[in-house]
Amino acid sequence: MKPFFKILLVAAFAIVGTNSAQAQIRIGLNGIELDSDPQDSLSVSKSKTKSTAASYSSSYYNTKKNKAKFSFSLLSCNNSSIPMVECGWNVLQSVDYAPYTGMEVGEFFDIQNWHSVQLSLNILHSSIYSQKNKIGFNVGVGARFNNYRISPDIMLKKDGELVMPYAIEGGKRSNFCTTSLHIPMELLFGNPNRCSFAVGGYLDLVADSRSVVKYEERKKREHMKNLPTNFIQAGVTARLKFGDFSIFATYQPTQIFKTGCGPNMQSWTIGLGLF
């Protein structure tokens, strides 16, 4: 990041996060740090790999000396149960082909679980954590990518408003993919830097859905965009966190496709998270 933008970033956080007339600015090899109060800090740091992260944190005390910490961070997840990167495997449950009654379509959405991957990148984090009670609440914002691998002999296309499987030849891989704005919210119990447990939910706002086929013929691909998926998809999450590593499971009761436009199903995801 150029020095000019670093200065703008520090100035913006200083306006929002400082309410004291006295402030200290320290410039060193690790970046720029501003202290406006013994409990408030703002830092912009640059690592040897040229990646830049900015974070703001503030602490307050009540009459019982119970310390709680509030932090907002970009490209950082201190005190949060929500990882920076999550990778999991999708599993479908109770797939129902009721919209295709009378049609000979078969079980075309029978996915290959180990090749049906979910990837989440959580860029923004906000958290509040009580050090005395060992409990916290975390919110994140990021992007989620879901991939469902189906038979290479078919491609999903729209027939009016109905998702239909069409037979193809020479297919190597066939996938149904969605891209969403991902908003996770979790309640954390324990020490987030050691061992903790979290439960919560998420809201996904689907921005793109498509069927993608890669053929045996080199570099040949075919796309079918804007399949009729539900814009809002939501589910619940359970997570075990061990330092910078976590194991999670999610359950999504909301339907992937709009009512009457595709198979009805619920989905599970099991995977790993890195902080």
Please describe what this structure looks like.
This protein is mostly beta strands. The protein has 2 domains: 1-58, no CATH class; 67-274, Lipocalin, CATH 2.40.128. It contains 1 helix and 16 strands. The protein has one helix spanning 3-17, and strands at 24-28, 31-37, 40-46, 52-61, 67-74, 85-96, 117-130, 135-150, 154-159, 162-167, 171-190, 195-215, 221-225, 232-242, 245-252, 264-274.
What does this entry show, briefly?
With 275 residues, the chain is mainly beta.
What order do the helices and strands come in, and which of them pair?
Layout: H1 3-17, E1 24-28, E2 31-37, E3 40-46, E4 52-61, E5 67-74, E6 85-96, E7 117-130, E8 135-150, E9 154-159, E10 162-167, E11 171-190, E12 195-215, E13 221-225, E14 232-242, E15 245-252, E16 264-274
Antiparallel strand pairs: 1-2, 2-3, 3-4, 4-5, 5-7, 6-7, 6-16, 7-8, 8-11, 9-10, 11-12, 12-13, 12-14, 14-15, 15-16
The ordered string of helix (H) and strand (E) elements is HEEEEEEEEEEEEEEEE
Number of domains: 2
CATH topology of the largest domain: Lipocalin
The major β-sheet equals:
8 strands, antiparallel, barrel
Keywords:
two-stranded antiparallel sheet, 8-stranded antiparallel β-barrel, 2 domains, Lipocalin, mainly beta, 16 strands, 5% helix, 275 residues
